[in-house]
Amino acid sequence: MKKKPSGITSQPSEADVRKLIHELEVYQVELEIQNEELKRIKDNEVEFANNKYIELYDSSPSGYFTLSKTDTIIDLNLTGAEMLGDERSNLRNCRFGFFVSSDSKRNFSRFLENIFSDRTKESCEVTLKIENNLPKYVHLTGIASANNEQCFVTAVDLTERMKAEITLTNALIESERFRETLDHVSSYIYMKDTQSRYTYANRSTLDLFGCSLEELVGCDDTRFFPPETVKRLQEVDARVFRGEKTVEEIDVSDPVNGRRVFWEIKNPLLGYSENNEIIGLLGISTDITERKSAEEEIIHKNEELKKTNAEKDKFFSIIAHDLRSPFNSFLGLTQYMAEESKDLTPEVIQRFAVTMKDSATNLYNLLENLLHWARMQQGLIPFNPDFIELISVFEESLLSIREPAKVKGIEFAINIPDHMKVFADRNMLLTVIRNLVSNAVKFTPVGGKMTISATLTSKKTIQISIQDTGIGMDQNMIDNLFLLNSQTNRNGTAGEPSTGLGLLLSKEFTENNGGKIWVESEVGKGSTFYFTIPVEEIKR
């Protein structure tokens, strides 16, 4: 057998050719379908883009106009039509200048002329006069087309901005007038931010602080007030920043003018946001120093009047009761002796005489206290302090109570260093000591003890104590002991009368000499009265 030559292929059959032709025809149909689909997609995209452009064009916040050289409107968007107050279809082929107010026409003509002559971007502001509508202020920006046969103009509505500017200008004018008005108000008017820094103050406030508005802005109260006042002001400001409206009376220590009192009203300032955020405070202060001083003077006078009335009532009470009782006893004894003297034995007469002597002594002491007290209220008691030996004053004071103490069998103990001196008025000190030791004897039972001591304290004063083993006092009596309008008088352990006037005198005289007086006591265990006297001259 012969072999076939290499490189020679067999011819395709007719069936194969037809199959191939069919496949090519199918492929061509598919390509045509794909081409149609691509064309449809492209048309849709073009249409979408065109619609999107039209949508953006018409919904733009600015007006778009296509104008001819004679200002004829060739095309415009919906915003432009709205600016001119008519339908878009009605505005095409109308002249734009027809809508420009007479006072803006020259400006608009120059604008249009420059666009086509200079072929550069031009701008101007004109007023549009729309029938049955308020005028509109617009800003025009224009540029010529490539063939210089028409121009594209953008119009921005400035009406609201112009209104705002006019409103702001008027507000500034009114604000300036308002500020001038506030500068003529005598009250102190100011504003602060939320950090309590001043942002405004009227002339009265600036004069008070001694600075200009420029120097004040940004400063807080620490520059103008002492620390204790600043703390009080900051507390009030903090309440205002929490939304409270406050009315406060502020007491200020002014280093130049002394004490100043201000009546302050503070309100929060709100911002313009919807949540009404507090942005600061408005304060109005009025100087009420004179009024406050007058009120305090009235209160002081009223207190003095009450004290005077209480003193008068006390005086009349002593005269009506405490002074009359010893006299009644004294008169009773003298009457009995006058009527029954022939029947009285010498022993009874002696006993009556002692009783009458005791009554006369008590009466004398009471009258002495009354006299001192009355002269003290009138300011007639002289005050002549000097250096005096304390022991000598006590020895003189004890002379009047030694006999009553002896009758009761009361033991004395005196612990006062020799040559201890105090700086005091001798007569006043005598009265204080006499009243205190007399009370100790009066309220100490038979067989009791009284101890008198004096020690030098660290405050350059002598502290004197008079301690007894008497009946003592409860806390209520201690609290009211030195009060004029309180009744604390009671009889002694042997029925001795008491008015409480001696303690009032002791308090007044001790304080007049620069000292203090107080008492410690317990019921049934006795009392200790303390008072202090300076050891050197004090400045008054």
Name the features.
Beta-Lactamase; five-stranded antiparallel beta sheet; alpha+beta; elongated; Heat Shock Protein 90; 540 residues; 17 strands
Bulk shape: elongated
Give the strand line-up of the largest sheet.
Answer: 2-1-5-4-3
Count the E strands. 17
The CATH architecture of the domain at 382-540 can be given as 2-Layer Sandwich
The total of helices stands at 16
**Largest sheet features:** 5 strands, antiparallel
CATH class of the domain at 382-540: Alpha Beta
CATH topology of the domain at 382-540: Heat Shock Protein 90
CATH superfamily of the domain at 382-540: Histidine kinase-like ATPase, C-terminal domain
Outline the low-pLDDT stretches. none
SSE-based structural type: alpha+beta
Q: What share of the residues does DSSP label as strand, in percent?
A: 15-25%
What value does the average pLDDT take?
81
Helix content: 40-55%
* Termini separation: 160 Å
- What's the assembly state of these chains? single chain
Rg estimate, integer Å: 55 Å
